Each structure stands twice: as C-alpha cells, then as structure tokens.
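Students often ask why we bother encoding 3D structure as a string. The short answer is that it lets us treat folding as translation between two languages. Here is a chain of 295 residues written in the first language.
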Amino acid sequence: MSNLETLLSRDAFLLSVDIRLFWFVALIYGASLVLYIIHLVTKKTGPGKLATNILWFGVITHAGLILLRTFEGQRAPFQTLYESLSWFAWSAAVTYLYVERKWKDIYLSGILVAALSMGACLYALLTRSPAVEPLSPPLQSWWFEWHVVLAFLSYAVFVVSCSIEIVYLAIKPSLKKGLGTDFGINMDNLESFHAQSFRLALFGFPLLTFGIFSGAAWANEAWGRYWGWDPKETWSLITWTVFAMYLHSVSIPKWRGMPASIFNILGFICMIMTFIGVNWVAKLLGIPSLHLYAM
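And here it is in the second language, the structure alphabet:
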C-alpha cells in the first residue's frame, strides 16, 4: 500500500470514529435532557442530579471528540458549520456545569442547555457534511481563532443566562402565591439565583463586543473592509444592541422586572438568529453574504 493510500485509509478511519463518537455524545446529551424533564415532572432531586452527572460525562466525552477533530484537521476545530455546532454544544454545556456548581439542588436550567446541546449535535449530524475540509482562504488569519472563541464563549454565557431567566419567570408566580416547590428554589434564594442571569450577561457582553471587533479586524484582513452590513454582521449588531438594552434596563427601576427579562430572552433569540438563522435565511432567499462559506 502506498503512502497516499495509507494516509487516506487513516483519515477515513478517523472520520468514522469521529462520526460514531459524535452520535454517542448527542445520545448522552439526550439522556441528560430526558432526566432533566423527569426532574421537572416528578419534582424529585435524584433525576436532576443524575442528569447533571450524565451531562458531565457528555462534556468530557465531547472534549475528546473535539481533540480528535483538531488532530484530524491539524487546525482549530470550528471552521465549518458542522464543527461550529459541535463547539457551540460543548461550550454551552461546559458553561452551564461551571455555573451550576454554585447552586444546591437547582437543576431546571439544565433543560434548555441540554436541549440546545443535543439539538446542535443532531443538526450537525443530520444536515451537515462531516468532511474535514482544508482551511479556506478567508479563514487563514490570526484573527480567526480569536473571533470564534470570543463569540462562542459569549453565546454559551447567554444560553445559560437565558435558561436562568426562563426558570425564574416560571417559578416566581407560584412562589409569590405561597405554593412551595421541590426544585430547590424558594423565596430565600430566588433573587440570588436570578442575579446569576444578569452577572452572566454582564460577563458575556464584553466578550461579544470583543468578538465583533475581532471579526471586523478579520474581515478587513480577508475582504479589505471592516464592516459591510453583511446579514451576519447586521444581526451581530442587533444582538449586541438588545443585550446592551437589557443591561441598561436592569439599572432602571421601572424596567428591572419583566421588561428586563424580555430583553434578555429577546437577546438570546437574536443570538441564535446570528449564529444559525441568518445563514439559513440568506441561503433560502438568495441574499448575498460573505459568511455563507460556513454552510
């Protein structure tokens, strides 16, 4: 067997292992999601705790998959949308597990995170090509890795922030009526739990800001202009604006309640649109976009 045939055989084997491992990771995230839902339905702590332990196993396994992908491509593992979805799923789960350590027996926020992580994995596996492509010319920049790492870290933080916000809005009415819950949340820790949502957004906002600036520097190096109102650029600015409004609204007494919560959830929706929705819409409607190389 020639050296070329040996190399191709090795690459094919690694890719098959990559795909099988990715399916296994998606299954783990799915199992975690099911247990979180059982925790929601039964109000028992056990399923929630087990769901978190399984999510830890999924994150560790996923980290191994990302390292394998890095070895396969000999580059950062987030060039294609297939890889970006994997990176997003892992980042969100890791961020959630880090934040959850501060709570005692509060697991409801894991539902949204596990659902998004599983969904991102399945979307990548079912609709995107797993082929390890060479680094395309626009991505061959020092700014590429900085931009992606900062942007996805901010995305992961916003996912967890939104999950806390949703749980807070769902639990607060029943607690105000004096109805007890078995989710580890009560009137004593409700506001401190909710405060984590703001702190996360406050941490994620400068990351998103630096991500946009690094993306502009990258665009100038790749395409000769810092900003061109490309659909993804426009939506990133919309996302940044909505989160800026959320952070500002928290400082205004009249807006601190429901309006601020709505801005946080709206910012999350805009973030999802920036990440995946705008590519789909641009391709569907034939809108010109320099970012469609990631499709």
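Translate back mentally: Residues 136-295 form one domain. Keep this in mind for the problem set.
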